[in-house]
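Run log, item B.
One chain of 238 residues. Sequence copied directly from the ordering sheet:
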Amino acid sequence: MDTEAQPTERDRSSSPSVSEEFSGAQGPEDRSRFALVSRITDWLPGGLISLTVLVCLVFLLLLNAFVVQPFQIPSGSMENGLRIGDRVLVNKLAYRFGAEPRRGDVVVFDGTGYFGNADYIKRVVGVGGDHVVCCDKEGRIEVNGRSVDESTFLYPGDSPSSVSFKVVVPDGTLFVLGDHRSDSSDSRDHLGSPGGGMIPLAEVIGRADWIVWPSAHWTRLQRPGAYVRVPAADGAHG
């Protein structure tokens, strides 16, 4: 006896056809969208391919303007971590929602009116309210009375600074230095310039988070632990 269930005429007639199942899937809005895309592709030379390229281009422009932006390292002021020709991705959202740069962050900023008419990349050494002094008895930079061991990122053979200084960083600004101190024009060199060598937070473009080119240098830029024990300017642990 054949025990396999066989559909009856009633079973077959009661099952909706494929056309019935999907007949209402495309509503007026879907049809109007399709018609709009069709009109655009008819108008554009190259049709759908050109439209796809245009959409990708707009997406990249928006990404570049508001989210991440690539920058090329123009000098040796941040060696050895960042070398001439390296390309870094700058996170433009890092400080957009209430967060502010922290000591040790590598930031890109607009130096117009402060350093020069260009964008710069430096490491944050002091934030608003900090007392930054160079140097202690061992030649190290002090921040709020705490000596900072910068040996993990300073250029080999460089001292923390060949120039003595003692500054208080105004609120809303940053004191920044290059890692290759003997080859860096930074806050130390502009103490007598407008702004006193300090960079306003409003001029910070973003935080450099990744080296993306060349591929051999691909790495994430981590905030060093050298500043972890530095207390806040008011004496609270920061």
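Observations after the first pass:
- Residues 48-66 form the longest helix (19 residues).
- The chain has two domains: 11-66, 70-227.
Flagged for discussion on Thursday.
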